[in-house]
Each structure stands twice: as structure tokens, then as C-alpha cells.
Amino acid sequence: PVPTISWRKVNGHNPSKARLRKSQAVLEIPNVQLEDAGMYECKAENSRGRNVFRGQLQVYTYPHWVEKLNDTQLDSGDQLQWECKATGKPRPTYRWLKNGVPLWPQSRIEMVNGVLMIHSVNLSDAGMYQCLAENKYGTIYASAELKILASAPTFPLNQMRKTIIITKGQEVVIECKPQASPKPTITWKKGDKALRESKR
């Protein structure tokens, strides 16, 4: 006799959107998602007995960004850390480009699982960077610019007063605020002699 047919997802529930057609002989899953993957079982039985077929549904996805890059400005000597994160199945692998040319690990440059680190950046590191996330179904790109700030110390006009008149016994505060990148070291002298800290 014509068998009755039933479907089930082994170790899980049938997707709620699943449809059965042709006297339940055909299982249809529209708009397949990652969670639909798994082992499916088709069971056919009549008065003479039953038979079961199992098939594995594997779902693959195009890479998709979870975390992208942002344009960054750093002082010369700082450390850069950028992270690219993408999902996909198979899991995406990552590559980096600088100004369109492949970037490789070097003494100051590390690349591990989508993380790019550049130690002690300098002007030569400035440029446009791209992170590529790819699996066998496709490649996606994320771009960001790295700007390096580097300037010798300068004192904007009127930053320090040439003459300070103060009454004996009062406290005086003299500020030294140069503009510089990276952050400069500051020393003080009185005349030609270096000033040392004291109780006063």
C-alpha cells in the first residue's frame, strides 16, 4: 500500500516555516538560516513495514561584518590596534592591505585573527588600510585611514608671559604648554642651571 510519510529534524524541532508538499513527500524550508542546519529524517511506513532515510543539511553563508574599522589619528610612537570581525560559514579568514598592497608581518607589525597591531607608529605607517574577510563563498572589504601626527614642539604666541611680577612670599605658577607630537619631555632652567624640585 501507499506509505505514509513523516519528517523530523533529528536532535531538534522542525523549522516553523517548513512546508510539506506532494503528500508530505517533499519538505521545503524557505529562506534557509544557519540554525536550520542539521540532520533530517524522512520516515515512510505502511502495513508491510517502514523505512527511514536521513540526510544532513549544511548551511553556508557569505561573510558579514560584525565589527568594522574606523579612521584613526595617532601620535608618532603610539601603538595602533585595529580589529576586523566578520561572521560566516565556513569561518572567514582575514587579510590586510595598505594602500592596495598586501601587508605582511614585520618586526613592528602583527596580524592575528583579524587584529592588526603596529607598535611605535611613525610617519611611514600613515595611509589607507583595508581588511578583507573571505570564505569560499565571497569576500568583503572594510577600509580606514591612519594619520600620524608628528611635529616638533612649538609655543603658540602669548603662551608664556615674558615677565611676571609678583609680591615676595606669594606663590607663582608658570605653565609650559607646548604643542607637539609625540608628547614632549619638559625640563626647566633658571638661567643656565637646571631647576630641581625642593620643598618650595
Automatic annotation (TrEMBL):
One of its GO terms (molecular function) is axon guidance receptor activity. Residues 181-200 are annotated as: Disordered. It is found in: Cell membrane. Residues 189-200 have a biased composition (Basic and acidic residues). Gene3D superfamilies: Immunoglobulins (2.60.40.10). SUPFAM superfamilies: Immunoglobulin. GO terms for biological process: homophilic cell adhesion via plasma membrane adhesion molecules; synapse organization. One of its GO terms (cellular component) is axon. Keywords: Cell membrane, Disulfide bond, Glycoprotein, Immunoglobulin domain, Membrane, Repeat, Signal. Residues 1-53, 63-147, 153-200 form the Ig-like domain. PROSITE patterns: IG_LIKE. InterPro entries: Cell_Adh-Cytoskel_Orgn (IPR050958), Ig-like_dom (IPR007110), Ig-like_dom_sf (IPR036179), Ig-like_fold (IPR013783), Ig_I-set (IPR013098), Ig_sub (IPR003599), Ig_sub2 (IPR003598). This is CNTN5 protein. It comes from Pelecanoides urinatrix (Common diving petrel).
